[in-house]
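To whoever is covering the structure queue this week,

Two jobs came back overnight. Logging them here so there's a record in the thread.

Job A:
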Amino acid sequence: MGEQPGLDGPGLVTWYRDSHRRLVDTLAGAAPDTECFTFLPGPSSALAFWARRQAHETTVHRFDAESARGGAPAPVATEFAVDGVDELLRGFHARRGSRVRTDRPRVLRVRATDADAVWTAHLSQEPPVTTRDASGVAECELTGTAQELYLALWNRLPLPALSGDPELAALWRETSAVV
């Protein structure tokens, strides 16, 4: 990865753009059967995994930068946001390192209002197990557009509409940081 650039202002922007271009060129130029490390379930090819992961990473931090600048951040496309919620709930939080845990079994539902997308997260003393369905009774449900859910679940926006137990939503906010 190398040394940090020690840059600020226009020099940092140039460095970032150059680094981004090298990443895109590397992914685009690699053979489809190239093997590389992955740490989440996801696309079948390792290169598709990293393209997806970096697209979501860039989108969340683009939102951070645009918010810091002031004004309205660029929108996140609905299908892309759905994929990002899926990656977060069924990828990151399915891992051992997820801190979203409860003393007793609990159920949190997440429902996109602008897409056919519903997730049911079963919380316990183990990592959450999330399915893409609306099965069972949820104690708390978060509803909003896919973009609202994507940014809220990454703790960039307040949680959208909530029904049921607000303590379960607060648990998410307090413990869901990805480390």
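Job B:
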Amino acid sequence: MFATRRELSKPSWLRVKAPQNERIGSLSDLLIDLKLNTVCQEASCPNIGECFAGGTATFLIMGPGCTRRCPYCDIDFTKRVPSLDITEPLRIGEAVIRMKLRHVVITSVNRDDLDDGGASHFVACIEEVRKRSPLTTIELLIPDLCGNWNALALIMKAKPNVLNHNIETVPRLYRSVRPQAIYERSLDLLEKVSKGWPKVYTKSGLMVGLGETDEEVLAVLRDLSSHKVDIVTIGQYLSPSNKHLKVDRFVEPHQFKQYSSYGENELNFLQVVSSPLTRSSYHAGEVHRLMKEYPR
């Protein structure tokens, strides 16, 4: 039903100026040199200029191709490689050193073709970063692993500082937005991490503007709270192309503030980052402040 909707005009608060900064070019060169992918580039993130200018990036491993074909996502599903590159963790570690990162975010494409969903590759990346830069905190943004909780346990035994898994949208829209995912399975994953590894900060995110109502967003926040999630990100969905799901509405900035206020004041999340341009890893380095404020 989304494909028949007319294109909505993008409001002024969603217009991002093209950055002019040498730091962007040097970071792009570094990524090319190390043959690394970032979700910033592959998913056409609107904050790529700000993040690259600030020397931060979210590394995308096991890609660039994905085994799923979510109609909102700009990551290519046609470029999947059959086997994993065992040198990729080494290159992630080298990038952390060269970029002098205090906090690194590592995510992946879905690899439903692998027995462990890529869990052992996540572990190898954690181990390499810890070896090369032991003071760097590590945030993982993982897929649902098709509900393989043994694979999840393998990841968690490597002790990431933050475990992120995005809920993405409201349950009513899962069939059209995340057809290969299950809302309850994602909630179950987050709760298993919170209960099984209480020292790890849990995080999740969702997009708005796909056809949900504000009350449905608040209901998702209540679900995330009841499943012991610590941090939530909420941002405006932007259609990457005319082949993807269309934007149903542009949520006003004041409504994003209401989401944040409800989540932090009524549901007691440690943090709700909510704005039109918020993305899952946007300003992820702020987790340092949370760790100091709420040590575990």
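Note for Job B: The CA atoms of residues 187 and 223 lie 8 Å apart.

Please reply-all if you pick these up so we don't duplicate work.
Q.
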